[in-house]
Amino acid sequence: MIKVAISDAHGVVREGLHAILRCSGDFSVVGEAVDGASTLELARTTDAALLTLGLLMPGIHGLDLISLIKNENPALRVLVVTMRAEESFAARAFKAGASGYITKNCSATEFLDAARKVGAGGVYVSVAMADEFAHGLADMGSALPHQRLSAREFEVFLLIAAGESVAGIAEKLGLSAKTVSTHRTRILEKSSLANDAALVRYAVHHSLFEDDSREAL
């Protein structure tokens, strides 16, 4: 039986994943977390083989949280369960240390398939996402502006688009305001956008926001 820990800011999601895992008979849920701090504490103390991780939560979150989880517990396998269905973001999640990536609109069967494979030491990406990866590799020359950003620039991009101030982004990411401002300047230059309002319009046009939250993690 595979031991699993669940991290997500939303109680309904945690309860739903718990129920699916319990009913399968293949998993034992040994812990839950609701924000960045409790997720890192769980990573430090759990004997789980697998952590299912929602990326939008209070405190430390997103790609930085994946990296910190792996620093705390390198053996813990991370399966990202998120609303973001974009291959460029999935690629960044894998680079940060995730071993699986699925979206929250997947079926219970696919979620269990992913959990089994990642929990057993494998890597999982949905067929639809795999097609996106293949398309992206075959068409690198026509990548959208946001797909050319570095992982950090992309994270700052999403936070600006979600309405965060420079000071707020600096606090969330543990950076100086000057560094965030530098990232902002580079983002606008690389994206050929004039200002933050144009950046928000771009994010809306390309559906880079998380459903119901105007955040994209």
From TrEMBL:
SUPFAM superfamilies: C-terminal effector domain of the bipartite response regulators, CheY-like. The keyword Lyase does not apply. InterPro entries: CheY-like_superfamily (IPR011006), NreC/VraR/RcsB-like_REC (IPR058245), Sig_transdc_resp-reg_C-effctor (IPR016032), Sig_transdc_resp-reg_receiver (IPR001789), Tscrpt_reg_LuxR_C (IPR000792), WalR-like (IPR039420). It comes from the Bacteria. GO terms for molecular function: DNA binding. Keywords: DNA-binding, Phosphoprotein. Residues 3-119 form the Response regulatory domain. Pfam families: GerE, Response_reg. Residues 142-207 form the HTH luxR-type domain. One of its GO terms (biological process) is phosphorelay signal transduction system. The keyword Chloroplast does not apply. SMART domains: HTH_LUXR, REC. PANTHER family: TWO-COMPONENT RESPONSE REGULATOR. This is Response regulator containing a CheY-like receiver domain and an HTH DNA-binding domain.
